[in-house]
């Protein structure tokens, strides 16, 4: 009983239910990480197929921990989601990325921007905050893509309402990791979805056979039928890119084209003549 009480106190203190000591340490450090300048946004180009021309990018956050070095989002985002720190982190990523891509667009390129949103961010005033950030950064609503996963609560009317508000304002909504969750088709009818992002696990099994292409082909057909844009994720080889073109996919991202990179590196890719 003492043990249980101690455990309970520990949880309340750290805010990570069932968190390990390691998680607690990270959880504590995550509060204020944006304000202290420890977060970075990396940008992964999204290319048009088959030309390979960059027509947008996805913002992916990294944490430069003062003692531990770079920590990937797969490690700290789930912790930030549990503690609630994701709200301030998400707001910072959105503002930073909108300002950066607005600057690239001012150089004359038409570019869209994908920003990931955790389910926990999607309640109470999310749409208002996004719309305010667009106004503050001068980034056009129609070039912003909010990427949500199938873990968003479609049964929560408040969440559904936030996404409809954003969509009504012109912001596009993408279903990320499409096909890996559950009740996929229900999401398509209840949420204002514009874009399906084909999960990298389905791209990874493309091998020139009908069997390997089964899910990717199905998602692409579904997209065409519903008049949705489809973006293939995790394209790592020329063979996969070629097969995606054959299957009718027009948009992709992956290491084969470019890894996520700091803004300065992408500036050099977008505007090569201006870097000497
Ligand atoms: P995601 O949204 O599905 O992002 C795609 C992930 O795949 C990224 O990992 C990216 O670096 C990686 N990737 C891109 N191309 C390839 C490829 O060709 N092969 C392979 N194997 N991987 C590739 P990353 O940057 O580590 O992000 C992991 C996840 O963390 C993201 O998955 C997203 O769910 C989450 N995340 C990242 N930034 C944010 C953020 O600002 N807010 C929220 N809420 N979540 C974020
Ligand atoms: Ca994403
Ligand atoms: Ca994804
Ligand atoms: Ca993912």
From TrEMBL:
Signal peptide: none annotated. The keyword Cell membrane does not apply. This is Diguanylate cyclase (GGDEF)-like protein. Keywords: Membrane, Transmembrane, Transmembrane helix. It comes from Actinoplanes lutulentus. The keyword Transmembrane helix applies. Residues 23-274 form the EAL domain.
